[in-house]
Amino acid sequence: MELTDPQMAAERLLIRLFHERGVRVFDPQPLRDRCRCSHERVGEMLRGFFVDDIDHMTVDGQIEVTCEFCNSTYHFDPVEFE
């Protein structure tokens, strides 16, 4: 019940959970729903694969990578990774 009690202060809840004094609570940070993917970052990731793996990823003469977070699609020429 304590975990869901909106009246309990965060400091008090942390002390009860961890049974320690000196618990520090930092200012809240806003969450941002954004993706850090880019054509360059995905290309760097692909450079870590073996040539045989790149061959298996190639369909119709190109490699297509879709970010599962933001749904951006990037296209690459497999020759870049030889």
How do you describe this structure in short?
The chain is an alpha+beta fold and about 80 residues long. Helices cover about 30% and strands about 10% of the residues.
Description:
This protein has 82 residues and is α+β, with helices and mostly antiparallel strands. The protein has a single domain (2-27, 37-81), classed as HSP33 redox switch-like (CBS domain Like), CATH 3.90.1280. It contains three helices and two strands; from the N terminus they run αααββ. The protein has helices spanning 10-18, 39-46, 51-57, and strands at residues 63-66, 73-76. It has a two-stranded antiparallel ribbon with strand order 1-2. β1 and β2 form a beta hairpin. The chain is elongated and about 60 Å long. It starts with 9 loop residues before the first helix and ends in a 6-residue tail after the last strand.
H/E element sequence: HHHEE
Rg (C-alpha, Å): 23 Å
| CATH architecture annotation name | Alpha-Beta Complex
Kindly estimate the percentage of residues that lie in beta strands according to DSSP.
Answer: 5-15%
Number of helices: 3
The domain count comes to 1
Shape: elongated
| CATH H-level superfamily title | HSP33 redox switch-like
CATH fold topology = CBS domain Like
**Which bin fits the share of residues in helices?**
25-40%
Write a concise keyword list for the protein shown above.
single chain, 82 residues, alpha+beta, CBS domain Like, two-stranded antiparallel ribbon, 3 helices, 29% helix
